[in-house]
Amino acid sequence: MYASQEDIGYDFGDDLKVGSKPVKPNPNIDGGWAWMIVLSSFLVHILIMGSQMALGILNMEWLEEFNQSRGLTAWVSSLSMGITLIVGPFIGLFISMCGCRTTAIIGGILNALGWILSAYASNVHYLFLTFGVTAGIGSGMVYLPAVVMVGQYFQKRRALAQGLSTTGTGFGAFLMTALLKYLCTEFGWRNAMFIQGAISLNLCVCGALMRPLSPKDLREKCVVRSDSEENRAKALSHSTETIKSNGVLSEEPGKKEEAANEEVLGSVQHTEIGGKSGSGRSMYGLRILKRVSQLTVTVRKGFALWYSSYFGAASLFTNRVFVAFIIWALFAYSSFVIPFIHLPEIVKQYNLSRQDNVFPLTSIIAIVHIFGKVILGIISDLPCISTWNVFLMANFTLVTCILTLPLMQTYVGLAVVCALIGFSSGYFSLMPVVTEDLVGTKHLANAYGIIICANGISALFGPPFAGWIYDITQKYDFSFYIAGLLYMVGIIFLLIQPCIQKKQPREKSTEEAQV
């Protein structure tokens, strides 16, 4: 039988029952430093996702420079986009061990290194390693912390905060498209990538702004959770409650292990205090031992949380709606990425380069994408509106546009469809909110890591598949049709699974009544 919300608390078990004393909300939740986190995440989306949305410019330069097939060359962009997202589950392990701030700073250095090394590429395969793998892993190490930190700092205005931060993708696609065009024209694509690598070092600054909340602050955030948001999550709560109740049951061994680790640290501290009269060298050794012990405790706790999320009793995969969400993510992202990578080629094929140079179609998607994220975020935060329903409606609109785009062969027709693609794809800002409603704040990093991993697989194979279809048919039409149909399959999974979950409790209650 499913546990109730009252029985399981909200991800943190019995620690939240603080008695009759009212919990004073942290001023940084939904305000204060929370807006600096939004700014940091906004800049991360500009520098990472915005740059990746502008890779169509570099893709054309690589086709001309290396004279390889469109399918092979598209793998460079796909690897970068795909690996950024595919490494999500492993970045979740880094976050559990080191925290968001350290993970993001290391990722910023790795991303910049990937861009700079790519400036010296001698062939496409070299770009696979430097740009696809190195820059891709670095991007993933910054992107996931940027999303998770916004989820931790906001409760009442989560959808709006995620919407504002992720508008950086739209701004970035618009700015980076113009910047890379200018840099490639003035300095060549190699120097353009070198300069972009230097700009990417600003990701380290964004990471430094990700000040972590204390466990006490996270508990307070959960205690003050509004009733309206609990009602909003009810449609998805049955399988969520199962995973949360499992999580609480599996916390006891972890607490015992934590107590044992604290005893070890206490004995080290006692030895250090008692040995103050000893030599300086032995004191230095004790301090090193204490540091190593603390690091070991942190790593073991982080790994335990990561492992339990995927393989333990509280595995996220026991949540059937979440599994349906993963299946949807496997098909969804390529439908958004394919137009960005191949639109410049489609424009050239239809002899629309003159109009596109005045106002690029990718820029139309990027600009409207900004408004889509903010508007959908504001609508979703209304107490009478379900985030889940807004999310589904936006998906239906996007898949319709993907299936319609090949039918448009004029600039005006393509511009209208691109504008609708930009607005409806604003549902990306709702993905962390829906994920948090499904699994809770505690499991958000690991759960969202799985979702963006599925998106990454979609982004990895989508553009090369479209390029391969073009090499065979000399048209992009079939690429959009197949991507749209697969996307529709993912949406059907999202529609079916919640209905199944609603029926199961009724069936169980009927059986109990008969007994």
UniProtKB/TrEMBL annotation:
CDD domains attached to this UniProt entry: MFS_MCT14
Major facilitator superfamily (MFS) profile domain location: 37-502
Alphabetical UniProt keywords: Membrane, Transmembrane, Transmembrane helix
Gene Ontology molecular function: monocarboxylic acid transmembrane transporter activity
Transmembrane segments: 33-55, 75-95, 102-120, 126-148, 160-180, 192-210, 321-341, 361-379, 386-405, 411-434, 446-466, 478-496
Membrane topology: Multi-pass membrane protein
Cellular compartment(s): Membrane
GO cellular component, one term: membrane
Entries under Gene3D superfamilies matching the protein: MFS general substrate transporter like domains
PANTHER family linked to this entry: MONOCARBOXYLATE TRANSPORTER, MONOCARBOXYLATE TRANSPORTER 14
The protein's name: MOT14 protein
Lineage: Eukaryota, Metazoa, Chordata, Craniata, Vertebrata
